[in-house]
Amino acid sequence: MNTKASTAKLPVHVGIIMDGNGRWAQERGMARSQGHLEGLKTARRIVAAASKAGIRYLSLFVFSTENWKRAKDEVDFIMGLVKQHLMRELDFYRQNRIRIRHTGDISGLSAEIARELQQAQRDTKDFDGMQVVLALNYGGRDEIVRAVRRLLDDHFHEAPPDKTQAASGNQCSMPCSITEDVIARHLDNPDIPYPDLIIRTAGEYRTSNFLPWQAAYAEYFISPALWPDWNETFLHEALDAYAGRERRFGAVHAP
Ligand code: IPE
Ligand code: IPE
Ligand code: MG
User: Fold this and answer.
1) Domains (ranges, CATH) in the chain?
2) Which is the most buried residue in 61, 72, 77, 243, by most CB within 10 A?
3) What's the pLDDT tens digit per position in 230-247?
């Protein structure tokens, strides 16, 4: 483990696509739910490890807008785990000064989970340690659609169309004000810096709709290990790989 490299160039924001719970369970002849149970324990370990490593923001892909396609039993089990976790872990957040945030469509979650999620955010809002963003009922395309809807709502409430422009046939008032910055300001958590590093476990080479806008220039690290087997050593392996990357953002660096 090259800890020197990871402290030299540490990502501010890390996102994790926590994948492989089902395979982990199936390999052991267990129900998929056992994999999710182990996966939750891993999430707790990795939150503590990332906080210790000095990461400021950790986005965890918990449940996607597409995961509703799974069997009802599995969905219910995952939602039950999420609820229990939110209800019971305040001490853990407090000890680690962790602030809980959410990204995703809260209106698509059960009233109970939505309430627990809001309560956890309120209870931890003054903690100044790492911020953990739970991507729950999250889809990147869905987030962009919701952002555009909010933008339209804001526009029509704050700035009714200029009558003179409308009369002269000028269509410019709305479309001309749309920039990347305007869209970004209407995303779920506009104050959070974009992720520097996205980790995906279980060896799949795809983003599965995780933070497409924010991760446009993130570095990716694919780990073959299944999420329930993940630990601090794997996290440092990913941080070391990140420290060795050259980020150009489209520019050409002088030799
Ligand atoms: C990730 O593990 C957890 C969720 C998507 C909720 P999976 O359940 O996708 O595990 P695999 O991919 O089937 O192994
Ligand atoms: C992505 O994993 C979603 C989460 C980790 C919550 P999936 O297992 O749902 O992704 P696909 O279906 O393999 O793309
Ligand atoms: Mg999967």
Assistant:
1) 10-138+194-243 (3.40.1180.10), 143-192 (no CATH)
2) 61
3) 999 999 999 999 999 999
